[in-house]
Each structure stands twice: as structure tokens, then as C-alpha cells.
Design a protein that fits this description.
Distance between the termini: 20 Å
Helix content: 25-40%
CATH topology of the largest domain: Transposase Inhibitor Protein From Tn5, Chain A, domain 1
Number of domains: 2
Strand content: 15-25%
Length: 448
């Protein structure tokens, strides 16, 4: 039986008050095991890499996920506070929201549904996937030692299908309903800072934008054929009938693209694909986005490439005073979201866990997503003492560190303490060294 490394206890200390003492001791072992195991992120794999294969009380570690009382929402709030303090000490807090499919099979996974696989589908090819749909909120921040923006998950919610709600007799919540609930939770946790939420076109719904614009700024895509109007003119006294809800019809973004009189501004945008700088043309204005029965005031931004490298795009922002260039810069931070989804599958074992009870499912995947942010926090602390170097090779050139390098730095710290720290006096130190080396060798020999 091996102790949890001291560094991990220190790093996890801000969360200790959210658990009972017995649950906290077991949770630390699971976190350490999830970090150090190179294979599947199951409870048994975590216990094995921590040298607890012969521990007969393994059921108590399963109970941390499927039975013990602790609030994942409180953990998410504490994580958000740590992330904002470390990476965004001042200025607006930029967050991204998106959904991902955790591919899972099995009759005991009740919330499983059939969804469009966003990774393997394309405009002309539709691929279905069986699994769980998660809505994830991430902090979008530049990481100084990585040289680019990372998306750091801190809040996740399971968003089941309409069929699941019908079969269980529950009220179905649409994606926009989940987004409204999660974003307002973030707003309550960051009450004194501007919050900017960036999303894709799935969240370009007038009702959602109208409900959120009083609390935070939302940036998303805008259809090029959206119906745009001037604000309703002032109503003269004594006018009969219902008041007008919109003014004169404005040209659509498609019409502005084809209008030679459109005023374009040439700008340079940093942080484009691959971290390069891109020269673009933008045009912007304000309007009422109107659909019969609903409307919202927006700032629209039209973006085109002067060399025609990509199709023109339309963006919207619920802050009418926002700088159009900043709207574009905030929006392209969203590209880091898909990178994070790929990294948590590749390096943190998302989709390899085997829990099937409802409480364990609701806790395990958000915990692994949050572990991505914790590793980034801890690597940021390590980078203050030693440089985190990219793991390049002769056949693979890499200029900046990625999450793989951050995870390697954290693992090196933990394995160094576990295997080579001889804090015990006398002959016990040799036994500890031998046991630590044995665990390290077994982790390499039995990665699954």
C-alpha cells in the first residue's frame, strides 16, 4: 500500500473541505491513480498503479463515485476560482461552451442515446454514435509557457436525449436550456468581472441570447441570411394600435457581401490556426435580429479573407459596444475546445471508464475533464521553477509544449516523490524505494 505523493496532497488541498475525511483520503488515491496510470481510467487501474492490488477494501473506492456524499457542483465552483485566480487575474473572463459525445454502450447505461457524431460526420456524410452527451463549459485562456490558448474545463452536465426524458417521465431540457442554466451559474460565481461566452451556431437562438444578454456577453455565429432590422422608432403620443417591435428592414449579411459600398476594414488577427497571424477584412454594425414573436439586439460582424481562403462568416455579439476586432479574437479562442476534447480522450482516458450506475456516470466524466484543468494548473506552478520542454523528436518537430508535455511534467514530479524520495529513516527507505520502483515497472509492463 503506497501513500499519496506530498505534491498531490498540496495541490489538491483547496478541495479538501468539500469532502469528509474518509472520502477525501480515498479520492486522493483515485486522483493519483488517474494521473499515473497509462491505460484505462478505471478504479481498478488506479488502485493497481498505486500499489493497492492486494487491498481487500477496494469497494470503498468505488463508493467515492457511486455513493458517497459530495457535490460535484461545489468542486466545479472551487476549480473555476482557482483557474481565474491563476490565469485571468484581471480583465474579462472568456469561456466557451460546447457539447461532446462520450461513446458508450451497454443496457445499464440509462442515459445513453443515439446522436450525430461531430468528429466523424461531415456536411455530406452523417455518422451516428451511441453514448452520453455532455455539455461542457471551459475557460479560454492563453497559457504563457504553451504559447497559445487552451480550453480548460471546469463545469459539465449530462444532457440526455428527448427519448430518455420521455421514457423516465422527466421534463426534457433542450441544449439551449442547459446552456442558459450553466452560463448563469458561471455568472453567479464571477459576479464582479465581465464574462464573455463563446459558442458555435447551435447556441445562436434568439431566446437564449435575449435571456443572457443582461447578465453576460454571448458571441456566436450568425446566419448570412438572418433577418436584421433597425430598432423600433419612438412611438408618438396618441398613436393608436400596438407599438412597433422593429424598424425598417436592413440588408442581410449576404447582401452586404455583394454590395460594393460596404465599408471593409483590413485587420491582422493573431492566434489563427497553427498560432499564425492572419490578415482579414471585417465589417460591422448593430441591428435587431428579428423573427416573428422574438427579437434581440446584436452587433453583427462580417468576416472575409481577402484571398478567398475560406468562405465569408457572420458573427454576432450581444454587447452592442464591443470592438469588432475583439469579437473576432474572442471567437477564434473557441477552436481550442475541440483540441481539449481530443486530448482528454487521448491522454486522460475519457471513454475508457467502466462505471454504469447513474451517480458514478454523473461524476466520473466531469472529474476526468476537470483533471485536464488541474494538470494545467499544476504544470503552470512547475513551470515557475523549471521550463516545460516539448517532447520533440527527429521525426516530429514541436516548438511549443502541449498537454502531453504538461502531463509528463506532473507525472515526473509525482513519480520522483513516490519512487526516489527516501523520507523514512533506517532500513525502511530501501523497502520504499524497491516498492516504488516495482510500481513504476509494473505501470510500464501492464499499461492496460
Amino acid at each position: 500500500m503506497s501513500a499519496v505523493p506530498y505534491s498531490l496532497e498540496r495541490w489538491m488541498a483547496p478541495f479538501a473541505a468539500l469532502f469528509t475525511r474518509p472520502t477525501w483520503r480515498h479520492a486522493l488515491v483515485l486522483v493519483a491513480g488517474a494521473l499515473l496510470t497509462p491505460g484505462r481510467r478505471t478504479v481498478t487501474a488506479a488502485l493497481s498503479v498505486m500499489g493497492r492490488r492486494e487491498d481487500g477494501g477496494f469497494a470503498k473506492f468505488h463508493r467515492v463515485l457511486n455513493r458517497n456524499r459530495w457535490s460535484s457542483r461545489a468542486v466545479a465552483q472551487r476549480l473555476l476560482t482557482l483557474l481565474v485566480t491563476s490565469f485571468v487575474p484581471q480583465g474579462p473572463v472568456v469561456i466557451g461552451i460546447d457539447e461532446t459525445i462520450e461513446r458508450r454502450w451497454g443496457p445499464k447505461i440509462k442515459a445513453r442515446g443515439i446522436y450525430r457524431d461531430p468528429v466523424r460526420s461531415s456536411h455530406g456524410h452523417f455518422v451516428k454514435a451511441s453514448g452520453l452527451r455532455w455539455m461542457v463549459v471551459m475557460l479560454l485562456v492563453p497559457i504563457p509557457w504553451a504559447g497559445r490558448v487552451w480550453a480548460l474545463p471546469f463545469l459539465s452536465a449530462l444532457a440526455p436525449s428527448e427519448r430518455f426524458a420521455r421514457e423516465t417521465g422527466r421534463r426534457h431540457k433542450k441544449l439551449t436550456d442547459w446552456a442558459r442554466q450553466l452560463l448563469l451559474q458561471v455568472r453567479r460565481r464571477v459576479p464582479d468581472r465581465p464574462v464573455i461566452a463563446v459558442a458555435d451556431s447551435s447556441y445562436a437562438a434568439i431566446e437564449l441570447l435575449r435571456d443572457l444578454r443582461a447578465h453576460l456577453t454571448v458571441i456566436t455565429r450568425l446566419r448570412l441570411d438572418a433577418r436584421l432590422f433597425e430598432p423600433a422608432p419612438p412611438r408618438p403620443p396618441g398613436t393608436m394600435g400596438r407599438p412597433r417591435v422593429s424598424g425598417a428592414r436592413l440588408p442581410s449579411l449576404t447582401q452586404r457581401l455583394n454590395d460594393p459600398a460596404t465599408a471593409w476594414q483590413r485587420v491582422r488577427v493573431t492566434g489563427w490556426y497553427g498560432g499564425e497571424e492572419r490578415q482579414l477584412d471585417i465589417a460591422s454594425g448593430t441591428a435587431q435580429w428579428y423573427h416573428p414573436g422574438k427579437q434581440v439586439a446584436i452587433r453583427w460582424v462580417l468576416v472575409r479573407d481577402p484571398h478567398g481562403a475560406f468562405e465569408p462568416q457572420g458573427l454576432l455579439c450581444t454587447d452592442l459596444q464591443a470592438d469588432p476586432l475583439m469579437v473576432l479574437c474572442w471567437f477564434i479562442r473557441r477552436w481550442a475546445v475541440e483540441v481539449t476534447f481530443a486530448e482528454v480522450r487521448r491522454h486522460l482516458g475519457v471513454e475508457t471508464q467502466r462505471q454504469w450506475s447513474d451517480p458514478a456516470i454523473a461524476r466520473t466524466t466531469p472529474a476526468l475533464l476537470g483533471l485536464f484543468s488541474l494538470v494545467t494548473l499544476w504544470a503552470n506552478e512547475i513551470s515557475a521553477e523549471m521550463a516545460i520542454r516539448p517532447s520533440a523528436a527527429g521525426w516530429y518537430a514541436k516548438a511549443e509544449p502541449t498537454f502531453n508535455d504538461a502531463l509528463a511534467a506532473v507525472r515526473f514530479q509525482l513519480w520522483s516523490e513516490t519512487t526516489f524520495s527516501l523520507s523514512t529513516l533506517g532500513g525502511e527507505s530501501a523497502k520504499l524505494l524497491g516498492a516504488g520502483l516495482n510500481r513504476l515497472i509494473q505501470a510500464v509492463c501492464f499499461p492496460a
